[in-house]
Amino acid sequence: MAEVLVLVDHTAGEVRKATFELLTIARRLGEPSAVFVGEAADAAAAAGSLAAYGAEKVYVVSDPEVTAYLVAPQAEVLAQLVESASPVAVLIPSSPSGKEIAARLAVKTSSGVITDAVDVQPGGAGVETTQSVFAGSYTVKATVTKGTPIIAVKPNSAAPEEVSGAGTVEEVTVTLSDLAKSAKITEAKPKAASGRPELTEAAIVVSGGRGTAGDFGAVEAFADSLGAAVGASRAAVDAGWYPHSNQVGQTGKQVSPQLYVAAGISGAIQHRAGMQTSKTIVAVNKDEEAPIFELVDFGVVGDLFQVLPQATEAVNAAKG
Amino acid sequence: MNIVVCVKYVPDAQSDRTFTEDNTTDRVGVDGLLSEIDEYAVEEALKIVEAGEGEVTVVTMGPEQAADAIKKALQMGADKGVHIVDDALHGSDAAATSLVLAEAVKKIGTPDLVITGMSSTDGIMSVVPAMLAERLGLPQVTFASELTVDGSTVTARRDGDTASETIVASLPALVSVTDQINEPRYPSFKGIMAAKKKPVEEWALADLGVDASLVGLDAAWTRVESFTKRPPRAKGTIVADEGDGGTQLAAFLSAQKFV
Ligand SMILES: Cc1cc2nc3c(=O)[nH]c(=O)nc-3n(C[C@H](O)[C@H](O)[C@H](O)COP(=O)(O)OP(=O)(O)OC[C@H]3O[C@@H](n4cnc5c(N)ncnc54)[C@H](O)[C@@H]3O)c2cc1C
Ligand SMILES: Nc1ncnc2c1ncn2[C@@H]1O[C@H](COP(=O)(O)O)[C@@H](O)[C@H]1O
């Protein structure tokens, strides 16, 4: 069976859940081959977890040059593997970097690229993808008509299935072009971990906006009662109340959790663009005219500083 | 310092965005405007040139109406515009768009910087900048939330999920900017008047030496097979808090098995 390349998303060898989803999707199309770019010391642990989700092969690229420069080297690595393995598709996490790697790979291999896929299925012309566009108001199905389908897939697009693969490790040596080494990453300041689930992967997201007036305490406590990730509107981020990496919306993260709670957020189109495809939507807002109420399954017109603590207490009590 | 800014004309997100019969984005039947994120790209270019010297050229590829995007950028202060317009371009995908923009940048004469938005507000693909860097053979310095140009070096801050990175490259380079980078100016009355006299060139594919068979809907490397409007969300329950709003919310979440 033909290979499907999956670019692994990991931090120091700890593979992110979204990668297991990609491996699960890859099995619908062919034989999953994981592509691990990172330190050799981290590869063994990663290979084990990748095999547990069906990776037959694990290509390991441990040349430190590949991660010392922005995006371009990873596209060259994948182009080299596309050439040697002739995969039926390449699956990449639909993160900002992932989409850029996909973009460059598409130009290098003269292949069609699709980003932000929420589903990938084998189809008539090879692979059929599903995306949600225009702030979630349309669902689009698309196919790739040229080259090797390169698909950037969003987190939460499949339920990861544990199934053991051979996980045969193959070291890959790469020769990078000078162009690939032209934008150097000279410093990387790690972000402090919040201990909460990652925004794009979380099943529940609780977000706060300008209505918090800078106090995210009630939002965080409610999030913690539900085991949720915390998000923020751009107004809250611009005010410096919450980090930009937690922004939900057009220029932040696009999330699609089972449950999205918007507290003190009006529901501007740019915010909706990041959360409108959530399964269940709840809002707490003082203003009954707030546009966010057009989207909700359940809404409370009220002060978030009254409503959220009471809800938090009730949720904690129900959990016992 | 000469800078080319790529700006896109997009359907207004406040209007009913939709598709046409051939499954392409409706760019004609819907009100359009300069993609808001590209205003940050224009602003950054203006700031860099104002701090030194040089010229800002804005380029757009799009239908006749896309001239509005150039006009807005000129009103903000850009010096000249190039509008690539050709019937054969209808339905072009990101690969073809980047091909055409790359040829346009070359024809303008490769500048010190090419600046784009981090993504367009209609597609939100964030692929054209990386494709342009690849095609032009320029260092890719994308998703810049902070930018400094010093001599022949450009330094940017790129915020990722797990780290905030510093990216350094030498000029010429391609930069894409986020909406964190600056506060775009509003066109002044003087700017609006001055824009009327600024040069705008219209180029067709032939002017760029790009073969029409490489662009447009038929040449696209991807195809939209179908589009469906999402059914409107069923009207939800909205309660006014009369002292038990939080309890009601928790009860809803329990009933939905979130607790
Ligand atoms: C290019 C561009 C990109 C953008 N990208 C994004 C993006 O990615 N994400 C994003 O969110 N926005 C984005 N925006 C901004 C967007 O247009 C809105 O300005 C923003 O979403 C508003 O945030 P907000 O809802 O928190 O604030 P507001 O619109 O000010 O709403 C605050 C709400 O809180 C309510 N409220 C106040 N006090 C209380 C209280 N005590 N209890 C309960 N409710 C209360 C008010 O009734 C109001 O509805 C973007 C804009 C542009 C131009
Ligand atoms: N048709 C176009 N004309 C000019 N610039 C464009 C065009 N399409 C995309 N761009 C540029 O590429 C950026 C990212 O677009 P995208 O990859 O479509 O999200 C935009 O912010 C623009 O700067």
Give a written overview of the molecule.
The complex is a heterodimer of chains A (320) and B (259). With 320 residues, chain A is α/β, with parallel strands linked by helices. Chain A is built from 9 helices and 18 strands. Chain A has helices at 17-29, 40-52, 65-68, 72-85, 96-109, 217-226, 234-238, 269-272, 304-319; strands spanning 3-7, 10-11, 14-15, 31-37, 57-61, 89-93, 113-117, 119-123, 126-133, 138-144, 150-153, 168-171, 183-190, 204-208, 229-232, 259-263, 280-285, 298-301. In chain A, α4 (72-85) crosses α5 (96-109) and α6 (217-226) packs parallel to α9. The model of chain A has no long low-confidence stretch (mean pLDDT 95). Chain B is of the alpha/beta class. In chain B, a hairpin with a 3-residue loop joins β8 (153-159) and β9 (163-170). Chain B is globular, with a radius of gyration of 21 Å. β18 (298-301) of chain A pairs parallel with β13 of chain B. Bound molecules: flavin-adenine dinucleotide (FAD) and adenosine monophosphate (AMP). Flavin-adenine dinucleotide sits between chains A (209-211, 233-236, 247-252, 264-266, 268, 270-271, 274, 284-287, 290, 303-305) and B (36-37, 179).
